[in-house]
């Protein structure tokens, strides 16, 4: 593999007995890329993540990290390099927030002061006040706070890879949006290689550099959100992307500032204003709400910086393609190869983590609840 690829899956399959959960999957994820896996329930997303961090072993094919087969990377090194965050957070209920965050560094036998310093740093990074939260237990946290702790824990050993399995799935829309914003802010700063699983297409479009659509353990299509919205491979991808809302979703990916006319160029101030940082979807909504065909565009200090007309949106290149690239009833699974070519401790503690992850595995299949009752301890 070239040095452009951090995680490579080459024709990877996973079988559970007679059942094939992942079927000849090939994926190449570049350093610093935020790659989002989407697809219907049971299509193999979580299995794919778990094969990457070796919570489960792949049956066939090869998985490489920076060109090295993962089976040749020792467990400590893998743990240091890969952070894992899941919907149920997987926090130990009888450990404080600080102790939960320091889990992996402790397994890696960092000195106590270094763990403490790192925990403090991460709490600050995730907007968790140390005085308020360090000594609390998971059951004393809201869902959003617990997710932050889960993400902090995943980041603790400063891994270059983060695997996130529906990490914000259980949250209300407002908390979810604020955690998404935080993830994007963190990513702009930390440049991790992230594989993120979600069922929420809005979330996928907001976060992804690349979306990988899976079905039946295979890749159906992959590309940037814009690519997928412009040319969904088949009816399955199209329906996953939101069917007839596709035009609006696409408008949601384009910032107003890319389309507006700077002040003085053309139009007068109007009765309603949109922020230059908002997207065309928000602008269209505002136009409908105020029955206006153009809007004033303002900056973060409410100064007028331009105007935006509905015709500017309509004539924007790449927005609202005349029709789907493929007839809506045509279904195909052809694109995976073509898409692949796109660039795009103490042993006790160790066992506890492995066992816990396996407990999570089992628990996740049966219950989405955050409160999992007694679990394996240190
Ligand atoms: N440990 C296991 N033993 C047997 N079958 C399993 C195991 N883990 C997953 N499977 C099966 O493999 C398939 C893929 O499961 P996986 O958890 O990867 O799906 P998913 O895409 O993450 O689904 P969801 O969106 O519901 O989380 C499913 O049919 C599932 O039942
Ligand atoms: Mg899953």
Descriptive notes:
A 6-stranded mixed β-sheet has the order 6-7-8-3-9-10, with helices on both faces. Helix 5 crosses helix 7. The chain is globular. The chain folds into 2 domains: 273 residues, P-loop containing nucleotide triphosphate hydrolases (Rossmann fold); 60 residues, CBS domain Like, CATH 3.90.1280. It has 378 residues and is an alpha/beta fold. It contains 16 helices and 14 strands. The longest helix is centred in the C-terminal third of the chain and has 20 residues. 37% of the residues lie in helices and 20% in strands.
| Biggest β-sheet: strands ordered side by side in the sheet | 6-7-8-3-9-10
Overall morphology = globular
Kindly state the percentage of residues in helix: 25-40%
Radius of gyration: 23 Å
The total beta strand count reads: 14
How many structurally independent domains? 2
State the secondary-structure class: alpha/beta
Largest sheet: 6 strands, mixed
The N- to C-terminal Cα distance equals 39 Å
Question: CATH class of the largest domain, please?
Answer: Alpha Beta
Listed once per kind, the bound small molecules are: adenosine-5'-triphosphate, magnesium ion
Question: Averaging pLDDT over every residue, what do you get?
Answer: 81
Put simply, the count of helices is: 16
Order of helices and strands: EEEHEEHEHHHHHEHEHEEHHHEEHEEHHH
- CATH H-level superfamily title of the largest domain: P-loop containing nucleotide triphosphate hydrolases
What is the CATH topology assignment of the largest domain?
Answer: Rossmann fold
Beta strand %: 15-25%
Q: Which regions have little confidence, pLDDT < 50, spanning 5+ residues?
A: 320-378
